[in-house]
User: What shape does this take?
Amino acid sequence: MPDTPIGFIGLGIMGMSMARNLMKAGFPVVAWNRTPAKAQALAAEGAAAAGSPREVAQACPIIITMVTDSPDVEAVALGPGGVIEGIQPDAVHIDMSTISPTTTRKIAARLKEKGAHMLDAPVSGGSWGAQSGTLSIMVGGDEPVFPRCLPVFQGMGQSIVYVGGNGMGQVTKLVNQILVVGTMNAVAEALVFAAKSGADLEKTIDAVKGGAAGSWQLQNLGPRAVKGDFAPGFMVDLQQKDLRIILGVAEEMDLPLPATALVHQLYASLQAAGLGQEGTQALVKAHERLAGVEARVKG
Ligand code: NAP
Assistant: This one.
């Protein structure tokens, strides 16, 4: 299997590290990126640089995309010079971006007309998980091709779960994001409460993180926020992209998501203040503004 050339389209924060890990696992990688310098940088490390997504698909039986949003995946998959123009019968397009399940299903149907397969395999674990090859990968799509792709997923991630047909990987990722933003909101609100009460913020986090209130957000993002470190692991702007997808899907189903909608508005207040490029822990700042109190350690 490591002899199989893997196509990689989209060498951003996530894609570059994921492609590097595939190369470390022994896979030959054929890469394309809209801004050519990034593909050239990977070529200097041993990848082959292709001239278009079509060329990537012509050269590879498995093609991964890791770009930003639904229209971007649609453009590289179905647009001029796209994957669909070069994909071979029985080849697999794996989209690992977080996008709308509806767009995923549309692309899968078009690829099927060419005799090709699609898996939607969005990830959780952030840029840290991409670098260390420890991503959680939620896979939807054509089940018979999942075993063939498993060694490729294992080169990038640790938890790899097949969850159902086309679009169900994306649905599962959206569930993940509902959980993430609800938890981050609770962390932000709790820290502002602690600050207003005069509590030692670091001791408070230490005291509660191992109990029933513990979470990845509290453990990893809480300490950063109270130290004033708002550098992004995952940016507010990208979180908002995911929340827009979630709320759109919910609206199509007539499903209320009151807490998720509230967090979307709180993040919108940060974007309006020019903080869209900060990390998602900046949600603390939205609560600080409402409360008129800063949740920051002194010194
Ligand atoms: P990023 O650093 O902004 O990279 C985006 C990549 O997509 C770049 O390679 C960009 O090319 C390419 N791209 C965007 N629009 C394109 C288009 N229309 N045509 C061709 N290429 C296009 O983003 P990222 O953080 O790697 O995120 C990628 C995906 O992973 C997103 O769906 C995101 O939600 C998801 N994700 C991210 C994280 C995280 O922590 N960052 C965690 C989990 C999931 P250029 O280089 O030319 O701009």
Notes: The chain has a mean pLDDT of 97. DSSP finds 14 helices and nine strands in the chain. The pocket of NAP is lined by residues 10-15, 33-35, 38, 66-68, 72, 75-76, 97-98, 123-124, 126-127, 233-234, 238 (CB under 6 Å).
